[in-house]
Amino acid sequence: xxxxxxxxxxxxxxxxADKTGFIHRSWMKNQGIPDHAFxxxxxxxxxxxxxxxxxxxxxxxxxxxHVKRGVYEAGGFPVxxxxxxxxxxxxxxxxxxxxxLASMDVEExxxxxxxxxxxxxxxxxxxxxxxxxxxxxxxxPAIVVTGGxxxxxxxxxxxxxxxxxxxxxxxxxxxxxxxxxxxxAAEGGQSRSAGSCNTMGTAxxxxxxxxxxxxxxxxxxxxxxxxxxxxxxxxxxxRRIVEMAHEGLTLSRILTxxxxxxxxxxxAAIGGSTNAVIHLRAIAGxxxxxxxxxxxxxxxxxxxxxxxxQPSGRFLMEEFYYAGGLPxxxxxxxxxxxxxxPDALTVNGKTLWENVRQAPQYDxxxxxxxxxxxxxxxxxxxxxxxxxxxxxxxxPSAASPELLRHRGRAVVFENLEHYKERIVDETLxxxxxxxxxxxxxxxxxxxxxxxxxxxGLPPKLLRQGVKDMVRISDARMSxxxxxxxxxxxxxxxxxxxxxxxxxxxxxxxxxxAQGRLHLDVSDAELAQRLHALRSADMGGRGGYQRLYVDHVxxxxxxxxxxxxxxxxxxxxxxxxH
Length: 577
Ligand code: FES
Ligand code: MG
What we know:
Helix content is 35%, strand content 12%. By secondary structure, the chain is an alpha/beta fold. The strands form four sheets. It has a six-stranded mixed β-sheet with strand order 12-11-10-9-13-14. The protein has a four-stranded parallel β-sheet with strand order 2-1-3-4, with helices on both faces. Helix 9 packs across helix 12 (257-270) and helix 12 packs across helix 14. The longest helix has 20 residues, at 228-247. The chain is globular, with a radius of gyration of 24 Å. The chain binds FE2/S2 (inorganic) cluster and magnesium ion (MG). FE2/S2 (inorganic) cluster binds next to loops. Magnesium ion binds at residues 88, 125, 201-202, 451, 478-479.
């Protein structure tokens, strides 16, 4: 007996022989759509973050075309729609400010339209969490198709990596090791093909997270943007989403607590970005899965970093794909009992382990064996103490081992402008043992929690050959950046966190092994200083920035807007005419 045919939600728009059905079908037909498109087959949304202002996603019209081929082939009807596109390289004051805006756009577009399942086209950093957050709040069947990383950068006969190159060459420029024309000459070679950053920055990290969570087909994270196999994957994802619509395989069956635990472990193994801490928390919040900062300690710490990619290591995403990509990493983890939940379900209907247990591994230099890890104890270090009562994070694999336990004198910058003005002052009283403290760059303070936490070192110390110093802030840092950088201090200074009370000359103690971040000032003194602070001036903002500053949650809660947390489903009780 054949199972009864599924009635899709799009039938509420297109299924009725009445005035409402007329309206919905007739206007769609102005695109040349035949009657049989409305015969009850699944309508597949292709949520596209294409934009020429998001260069990492500028090739997405072509990716969408290949998704459509797969959808048609499987008997679905594809409809492509645009959503707000967060471009990391251009958007000011930071693309993080509009991650939540994009997620609202995605959620309302999916729920309000005749869409039965959705393909999420993601690439540049914030586009992956934004689309997963929005789709999770609707809980429809969804599959992530990433645009893929750029080919290796090439400059002066060697490989260079996105972002990491900028930080390295800029330090060299400030130290007087290279000249301006040499610095600028790297621009073209760094970004020489379509795609997102080719380092293990936030885009690559979030693509790996999407794959480890089970929300994409295997190999989605690493196939280069311009490799024909990227388009095959888009095609196959189009085919698969039609099946998922028929199966009713919604996101809540994929995005379980087990999936997030797999993702946290994977982040440690790939040496992933600290930004994943915030984004995974926000996605989990949308689907109702409890996740907290200490899960990163419990599940992530002790995991070896196997993937030797910049900024922690040497290689780039192109080599990562050729070495076997994420399936090879997951296999190594699983074979050593390090995959917390091998039986977690993924979008292709198989378990994570079924997908990877025979994954080939081609290069032990790029994807290290467990007994030769890049970092023995990777993962994200969660810190707490009187300076960060609700936590802060540090990425040990990108830090200097000798600074992971450090005590030093604070040199304080009240905000980014103060930092820029002060850091070039040759008379600034600072040496390599000092701790640089930057305030007011958190979610409310910047606003949007910019990637400025990896503040550059004072030029006078760079000229002395100093390569790293302890830095602390309520900001984030680019996943392509490196250094002994304490980030995401919560509560942030602008929300009255203790960071606001730090003064020049205070002693600060960092101890990663103990998870401790301590300001050497008595409780009474700290309370008195905080009491004396005037509440931060939010600058009389209007528009979206006002909504954001009034409602954004702190870093430990994922920086979502408080009223966006949770799953609201896909039901729409009212029609439009
Ligand atoms: Fe888009 Fe890095 S700037 S991924
Ligand atoms: Mg970034």
